[in-house]
Amino acid sequence: MAYSGRPILAEELLFKPEHSLIDQSLHSRLGATTTNGDGFGIGWYGEGEEPALFKGVDPAWNDRNLREISGQVRTGMFFAHIRASTGTAVQRSNCHPFRHGRWLWMHNGMVAGFHELRRDLVMAVDPDLFPDIEGTTDSELLFFLALTFGLEQDPIPAVERAVGLVEDVAARHGVPHPVQMTVATTDGVGMWAFRYASSGQARSLYFSTRVDKLAALHPEVEVLHELGTEARFIVSEPLRDLSGAWNEVPESSCGFVRPGEAELLPFRPLLAAA
Amino acid sequence: MAYSGRPILAEELLFKPEHSLIDQSLHSRLGATTTNGDGFGIGWYGEGEEPALFKGVDPAWNDRNLREISGQVRTGMFFAHIRASTGTAVQRSNCHPFRHGRWLWMHNGMVAGFHELRRDLVMAVDPDLFPDIEGTTDSELLFFLALTFGLEQDPIPAVERAVGLVEDVAARHGVPHPVQMTVATTDGVGMWAFRYASSGQARSLYFSTRVDKLAALHPEVEVLHELGTEARFIVSEPLRDLSGAWNEVPESSCGFVRPGEAELLPFRPLLAAA
Amino acid sequence: MAYSGRPILAEELLFKPEHSLIDQSLHSRLGATTTNGDGFGIGWYGEGEEPALFKGVDPAWNDRNLREISGQVRTGMFFAHIRASTGTAVQRSNCHPFRHGRWLWMHNGMVAGFHELRRDLVMAVDPDLFPDIEGTTDSELLFFLALTFGLEQDPIPAVERAVGLVEDVAARHGVPHPVQMTVATTDGVGMWAFRYASSGQARSLYFSTRVDKLAALHPEVEVLHELGTEARFIVSEPLRDLSGAWNEVPESSCGFVRPGEAELLPFRPLLAAA
Amino acid sequence: MAYSGRPILAEELLFKPEHSLIDQSLHSRLGATTTNGDGFGIGWYGEGEEPALFKGVDPAWNDRNLREISGQVRTGMFFAHIRASTGTAVQRSNCHPFRHGRWLWMHNGMVAGFHELRRDLVMAVDPDLFPDIEGTTDSELLFFLALTFGLEQDPIPAVERAVGLVEDVAARHGVPHPVQMTVATTDGVGMWAFRYASSGQARSLYFSTRVDKLAALHPEVEVLHELGTEARFIVSEPLRDLSGAWNEVPESSCGFVRPGEAELLPFRPLLAAA
Asked: Is the whole-model pTM more than 0.95?
């Protein structure tokens, strides 16, 4: 779940909504795995230059510290992730969001055949960036490939090139349909969300309708008046069953949100020139 | 799950069967909660006088050490438990099995209104036993009440008195139907399993058919020939869908197993004389 | 370590000072045990009515989340504790500070013979408070005894009665010199620190000199100008070797700090009338 | 600590000796860091083809499961390690011993400038072995370089080449004296221990005198009669202050032990031909 808007307490986002992210740990209706208990993480922008991270390997619903911290963190840009491991170790360094400088990154999905492709993908990471890789996941590696291709300067082409590279390496190893992803990334100001799968059948991803439109549709729902007109959510699963609230991000698309701006753009992997 | 029989590697019991206990962590079909990820524990008799325990709060399917240890523990009496907390803290000291001397104890269910009843129940524990209480669960307290009433000398009446006491204290506090339990306990030689609920609707509990009878019914199933005729299982959920393999322990009953012996007896809470 | 004063980032208090609390985990010069690696905890007043807690059983120097959170928590009343277990389990529910309503409590020391005294002490806790006990330490029990005797209304007599009770119970069990303690407690506005041992030889406890006096003594030390004149520290070990900065709290004393107020008072255990 | 000899309970090795490895966690007299609380691990040969591992990030002295398992593991080849991180994450995948097939490996020391050298070292690992790397330590990478150079066929030259490669890569990056190491490795039958530092000043490493000679020297020490004549220890710090019991492995040497055999050989890094 990613939230952008007026500063709000994290616990409003994690524990309050009808089908909050914490509830998703237990019963994920649209996710690929029924239970997401292999770790959680939150990232937000507060004091200091870089965003802060609170991540752990305990199931989210059990972590007392998560509840405590959620009641104390007030922020206008908030990322939260529940992990279901696709093979790599369950350890804090493999939990999302990942951070580099001012950027946060989280990913649902996998790189198929990662065991075979990993070495070639690792070698494609910029040598100056390589030492900053802390874990062993495909998700973090995708992040570092995107950074290698200039995520910090121009995110969408950077991610297109990263995915293009993975597909190219996979083709050379004979691994079909390697990329399954929904990704959210931010620099603290803007937020980008990607939905793409090499097979054309990506996992679910939704963005929220403008809050003022929704408040007009549902005047009885109080929280809509508290949220502020700039509030935007990007989620794997809808937070609340409210008609008109959630809009699917189409396959092979990227949504971009910044205060006052929101747009949907096509996403097409690019293969860098040989 | 409780196993009694010829020495066998724990990993055969935990990871091999069709619907093994480890799989039960994720998809418990008959349990009260869909996911049991609040801890696990195994207990077994090997070197030394007392049984050994390996318990932890990580979800069982994630614990690498559990897999490693399972491949090394060979034992003829084996207890395994997956926990779904009913309110008390998720910490190793609240994981089952609990141990006292040569005895192991595990419990599925709860004492309703435990928050209100706890002080009175704690005070009913033998003062000499009280210092050995390590955690804060209703399950461990039931164990210590049973020990107080002579579990080590005559298990069935001891548990009947323990349950009788809980029901009496609950009545005085106005808490209806306090006890929901399936319990397994052992001294390393014999194994007792109880199924009882104050409301008359207890959780599921099964014991296995004699292995030689089952091997005759299903000659094609190899593991039955490896298990040995003395093999007995007591489980919350059947380990394998095999017709004729599993028999329900009736409501308000206690099953007792010892090499060469197996019987079902009625279970009736006793209120100790005032 | 307890801090009261102008709001400050927790990381300034935990990680910056010369001999910060985090360093104390590794090399405690004045503490009873050389290494304090059995857990840590911080408590502070921020959003909401009750103070927030962040506690864990990893050694403080290893906990990445502690570093992250410290950089985000800005508060005017801050408690931090490093634990060295005196026997009870290492688990989050046994880490300090403990909380009840708006009150925080932390304790260095032990109740000797706790194994023998525990039952009687538990029974002396107000039955309405008893259900809130989450762990199994002597420290938390002392807190609940103080609450039983009215900590929230009048702290010093309440703690005097709690200690008096422990000494009385110990005498009846033949346990000499039961209480070894330095305690810090707060309601978010005022801060009380106690130094007492039944044997007359309590662990170390210091309070800081008024910052304006100290800045006059040491004009070259920059942080003193940033701290603000109301800043007060109460610590087990001095945070910084600076002459004139630290004053010993005498044996059998209680220090009290509130904005604009600071005093030292005698502390004498009281035995409640039979 | 490495033990080779007659099968023995792990708890005899970990918890019994005067200055056991568990005590070393707290007060390491000869180690580079005073406290080794960043994880522990044991490896041993029992059931099955491959050795078993029990590793964790809790300080060794706190891990209840370690105590329990130690009382149940009986083995003739036993490795135990206490970790003090030199920078990489504290997580189970970074704890020693590391395993590959039948081989175990543990390392005290570091590769200086690892952050700079890591990418080149990673690329030098055999592509077929690379996917098996689970963590991010220099220690594990040294192991995989040794495997790349044929550890499983001829250990000493393989380690010489691995170290040679590291020194060569370090020279090209301008990092002086890169390798600081004591290493123990085994295939379950033989045990090799290496002591080497690029600077010529390696950490401590000792091997034990033949037990029968020692029993003659110290007839009053009972455990010597229980140990069996084939017992051999290789340790970072002496387990027991007993004159004549411990012999320093010289700088730039490798000790090799197999039932009936023990020898000291020189160790010289080899640079593979260009």
From this structure: no
